[in-house]
Fold these 2 entries.
Entry 1:
Amino acid sequence: MVQPLSGEYAARREVLEKIPFPIGYGVETSHLLDLYDTFGLEAFAQTDLDRRVHRNQTTNALGKMSFGILQTFFNRLHAQGKIDQMPDMETFYRRFEVEDGIYNQIAQEVIEEERPPMIEINGYLNRNK
């Protein structure tokens, strides 16, 4: 995959209904792992959108995002039985800023939650009744 974290993807409804949907930065990572585990690599395709325009993010924002993606990545691999033991990760992303030669630690909580597959939600199943 050329841009697996681009936020630009499409899937058939019946596919997305069957997989959990993370709330946060790890949605693409989770979907790639779930779809690969369920359908295999032959279910994937990609196309060149020619031009991408994204707003730039600060290094601090990218650090927080990558921490959330790692949380999702390890949680998904553990749920799929691909790793036996989870790494000792807290929910706090820690970074350091220096001012006048003094380093200050800044901790920011990042919690990656997810919704269950849509076909497991009664309100969704009963939407046309």
Note: The longest strand covers residues 92-99.
Entry 2:
Amino acid sequence: MAKKFAVFDIDGTIFRSGLYREIVYELIATNKAPIELSTAFTQLEVDWKTRKHNDAFKMYELAMANTFDSVLPRIKCSDFDAAAMAVFERVSDYVYTYTRDLVRQLKQQNYTLIAISGSQEELVKPFADKYGFDAWVGQQYERGDNGYFTGNIIKTHDGKGTILQRIVKENGLSFEGSIAVGDSRGDIEMLSIVQQPIAFNPDRDLFDAAKKNDWKVVVERKNMIYELEPNGHTFVLA
């Protein structure tokens, strides 16, 4: 009999921030990245933190990602690896209670656990190993023979549904009883193909999708977890 599976996003879903952002900050703090990496999004970060407008976070995150991609060939692979190790050692325990406990519960129920993340595989792998995932996918940076990255990137923040379909097929898993947990627009495709989608601390796009499709919504705030059950395109506190 094919095994059940549960698939999780990591950034903002299990980890309380973004692994992708943490490694950028680490490279900046250790002076291992070109100066334009920090100057490109400094004001946009302020706009986000002061809630200047509804799209402030998206603009900040996009500017960071685009600039990082552009300077990648000027970053040493060894510096990147050291930054990834430092980030993992410092923040790998900073996780949400709800998703951490759900991972443990499903592991005990013999679910195959899958992590699909838009963060770099150098961070996704140790994070997934620590929390007992059976399969994982992260963003891949091609490494050149000169000790630097080539700039070629295999991105995973979009197309998560296609990635999940491939993993399910390769591992002989079943969509019967399947679960997916995500927090943002990039997780909508993944959530839409499982039987039990959970929108966790959703952004506006994911919340709208959850409302339209009657998906469960869970919000964790301070020491409280609120489970909202769908009720005719609205939600009620479970």
Note: The mean pLDDT is 94.
